[in-house]
Amino acid sequence: MSFEVTILGASSATPTSTRNVSAQLVHLLGRFFLFDCGEGTQIQLRRFGVKMQKINYICISHLHGDHYLGLMGLLSTMSLLNRKKELLIFAPKGLESILNLHLKLSYSVLSFPINFIEFNTSKMKKIFEDDVFELFSFGLRHRIPCWGFKLLEKQRPRHVLKDMIEKHKIPYSAIHAIKSGKNYTTECGQLLRNESLTSKPYKPRSYAYCSDTMPFDNLIDFIFDVDVLYHDATFHSNLSEKAKSTFHSTAKQAGIVASKANVKKLILGHFSSRYKNLDILKQDAKSEFENVDIAKEGETWKLQKTYD
Ligand SMILES: [Zn+2]
Ligand SMILES: [Zn+2]
Questions:
Q1: pLDDT reading at 181 higher than 90
Q2: Which residue ranges form the domains of the chain, and what is each CATH number?
Q3: Ligand 2 centroid, distance to 270 Cα (angstroms)
Q4: How many CB atoms lie within 10 A of CB 13?
Q5: Cβ neighbours of residue 113 under 8 Å, at least 6 residues apart?
Q6: pLDDT digits over 89-127, tens only?
Q7: Which ligand is nearest to the CA of 144?
């Protein structure tokens, strides 16, 4: 019942000798999402033992190079490995043209189909769903059009209590209805209330990814109450003017956003290469919000299950 985030890169603008540019893998119940795909992402996937063909969905936040320049290489390798499965790419307008031009000029044809879905609003919008998740995009505030993403798990069915099923010899054919909340009447007419046959499912978990943004009021509504928030923390608050002029956030501002949005955990990322020791950014955010982690490449955060 996994919902986990693995950081593949958290450096802003340029890679350093110890940090790669933006990319992360999110795994939710057998679905694999790649949020951004900076240069070198396919190497990071290899380094951390992720099978790249498992990726079903790629979400590109914006067309600054540190967020998408690894895409052509990744798609090319997927094709060389003879991928057949369709790949969904959610991206700003223009990325499809860039990739198509590249393929055309290199006389290349990918071994698999890509379904491009372009963002067409800065409002909160559901861009995809299946039976276990909903994926939303929302506009961020950056130098060029840029989007954040929210991945929301759907409510799980009630958990059937095995010992009660055995005790009352309930047939397998009745389980589906019981999971969906129905009562059950035994052959001898005894009514068994659903609450006695099942336990409550855990609360749906949620994750938000805010790659490059300066703070703005609507952001709080977009990400309110998520379990885990990944947020731009390019600078320390002693460089707040630089953060403002480049449309980024300070770690302290990320802490303020996390606090106002009532999230449970904040992961700071997109660090300027000037910071060798990231602890000062952690302390900067901690002045506003307690539960802060620094995005470290190869580390995985598991979203915990909670019950009402
Ligand atoms: Zn960036
Ligand atoms: Zn950017």
A1: no
A2: 3-156+201-302 (3.60.15.10), 159-199 (no CATH)
A3: 9
A4: 18
A5: 86, 87
A6: 999 999 999 999 999 999 999 999 999 999 999 999 999
A7: 2
